[in-house]
Amino acid sequence: MKKILFAFLFALTVYLTARFFSHASGSSLGVVLALIGTIPLPLWLGLAALTCFFYMLDWIRLRSMLAVLGHPLRFAQGLRLTCVSYFVTSLTPSAELHTPAMMFMLTRQGVPLPQALAASVSKSIYMTLWICLVSCVTLTFGHAIPLPAALQIGLPLLTAPLLGIALLLALMAFFPGPVMRWTERRAGTMKAGGLSQKILLGVGQSAHAISAIGKSSDVQHLVCHLASVVFLLTYVAIGWLLATHFGFTLTWLHALTIFSTSLMVAYLAPVPGAIGVAEVATSYMLDPALTPQGMAVSVTLRVLCWYLVAVPGAAVLAREFHRAGAWKLPKVFS
To answer: Which InterPro entries does this UniProt record tie to the protein (predicted)?
Structure first.
């Protein structure tokens, strides 16, 4: 029953958000859905194939990070993790639950906590850095697209925390010893057995695993970066196909600029799952008039590349909670 309730509430949130933004843009949800209904079967089949490939790349990215640390990840396990990842990312403004959820799921599969944290964080940071790099470069040197003044001002602020996280990751990668010694000293001043102490010790223990990934010359390290780039290009390809169907004529550079920025907004917007924000931003970049055709592109893109697996993710996570013991989280920090 709880699984059904989670899925229903999430689906209702997406629906009501779509209704609100479609109303704000001057095009009813019915018109947008009618336009989506005009997508022919051959195009749906092509979109389905690209969408499957899109999520397979998510599995490859995490699998390659775990492989560097000597842990396998089967496709079925990876798919469950992907679903949970998109679900928990949609619950809070800054995806605060993503890392704890991945640690919980991976430790349930036998991956030691420090290595689960290192693999999950490295995978996410690599992907986000590639998205921001491509988006910022294309916005600066590529095809000019209209951006709202507020977004132009706020964009550097959105990326600033990411740079701080990246610097922290680099510090842990190249100087794991000092990081671990510092966390141990700080933990010694905290309440023994307290949550803060356990978290700090967990971060310190993860420094060596992050260092192993950061310094690794294993081919799997390169695979993660390649999969991240192809992941982004697949998202762009899906967006370009939809835009072409709905009458937008885009060059490859124009499409790369719009849809890489769309994905950056989806990753960085301080709104749970960027629900509504990513749709409107994508539609605005296609046409500042926020036409029904632009909304049809953005809504379909987001359904295929986010909501499609986010709703099942609630059921997967609820099932793992139940297996862990009546919805009680296990002590993942020891």
So the answer is: L-PG_synthase/AglD (IPR022791)
